[in-house]
Amino acid sequence: MTSFGPVAISCVGVRKQFVLRHTRSLKEALVWLVKGRKGDLSKKFLALNDVSLEVRKGETVALLGLNGSGKSTLLKLISGVLQPDGGSVRTRGRVAGLIEVGAGFHHDLSGRDNVYLNGAILGMSEKQIDDMFESIVEFSEIGEFIDTEVKFYSSGMYLRLAFSIAVHTDPEVFLIDEILAVGDEPFQRKCIAKIKELAEKGKTLFVVSHDLDLVSTICERGVLLEHGKVIMDGEVHEVVGELRGRSLDA
Amino acid sequence: MAGKVDGFVRPGSGRGLLDVYGDRFLLKLLVRKEIKIRYRGSVLGLLWSYVKPLMQFLIYFIALGIFLNLEHGTPNYAIYLFAGIVLVNFFTEALSNSTRSIVDNRDLIRKIYLPRELFPVATVWVSAAHFLPQMIVLIGACLLVGWAPSVLQLAAVVLIFIMVSVLATGLGLMFGAVNVYFRDSENIVDMIVMVVTWASPVLYVWSMVQRAMGPWYWLYQLNPMTTAVEVFHWAFWEPTLKADQVVTGTIPPNLFTVWLPVSMVVTLVVLFLGQLTFRRLSVHFAQEL
Questions:
Q1: Potential cystine with B274: which of B8, B73, B124, B174 (Cβ 3.0-4.6 Å)?
Q2: Are B80 and B141 in contact (CB under 8 A)?
Q3: CATH number for A88
Q4: Residue B3: is its pLDDT beyond 70?
């Protein structure tokens, strides 16, 4: 890994805990207080436990694991949506996520308005969006519908536009969460080609996906999470093999 | 982004309202979006921003000015009434919408990191955009009855507008953040909104309160909205009074020497507390929403 640049993402001893509240009634809280705060009012769930990870600039990392292993939580910590309960997460360079494509879309606005709104939400400046606008529309294959309200779009058009904006945000670090399955097959191929192009340009990719064959063609490094812990970190094919082995045992 | 050490940043750590200033472009788009979608599919569109307050004004004017005959004791009661109503409308709309802004934008907040202060601030701007047409109606009405304000009075209008915006932002940040954890916050704000119209001299005259409260009048005057409404009366209503209509004590004593500075300090304290509460609570917004 000597060819990679400085550290882009650094996680040190990261711990994230969620509180599962069963009830939030005032009465129960009072009873609990009167009884001398015995027992736990809420159940806690440790999503990530002492995760340490370093990703260098230009690396392409696949975050693998079964459902509930903490992959998405880790991604949200890196994007800043969540804050760790212990340890530290630090990033260098602009980080943008292809997390939940279209989260910032508004149905009553036109495609054009949504491109600007969503671009700005993902951290683009007005000038960047102006410059990229043609390219975004072209990639999305929306064409003349760009001035139609988004609520009249088919689900495919919607996702294509959202994905197109996201890949044009041009950050140094890309976080990608399960969005490779966008639109029909030709468009999917186009998306994957675009992501590979980004990787070749030296962008740092951090991908979460259950499509193991696909991630092993895009990424070089694999990190395997299980119950919130890193249990393997190495060449992607080996890690995929390990995960497949474990899934069979389970 | 704060927390820079050798080029590293801690994702999700912001500088609060300062980040909102840095993100003016996004703020502009958010405000425009809100304005666009508010009256979507309606024929009258932005005209509703004129119709609603006019209706409210008519009701109050007929019920209080004519039926209760307040017009008799307060010349140009219509102007007096409307100057207060528009300001209070601005405040209540800004406050109640910013309180709901975090919960309303939960889809975004759960998925993408943005300076979260953007949402309450954007709603205050949207309210300001609705306040503007009402101001135009007010100024038009004032001009009809011979309004001739001084430069100082015009400057006071701008100052009060800024003060009320800041006050609404501060309270909106506070209640908006608490609303994520306890939806009771919305109901508390609904009550504040209800009280505020009556807790400032919008429908009546300040001296009526002084008569009733006596030595405790200063308590009433501590409310920044009271001062704001009184300054608006001074700027809009007083200059419309004719020589033969002069009323004694149009504004309470010490309004400009004591109460305006006090209100500005209270407002800044509210903003500070609002930002503080917001920062404390915003750390866990994404998992609590």
A1: B174
A2: no
A3: 3.40.50.300
A4: no
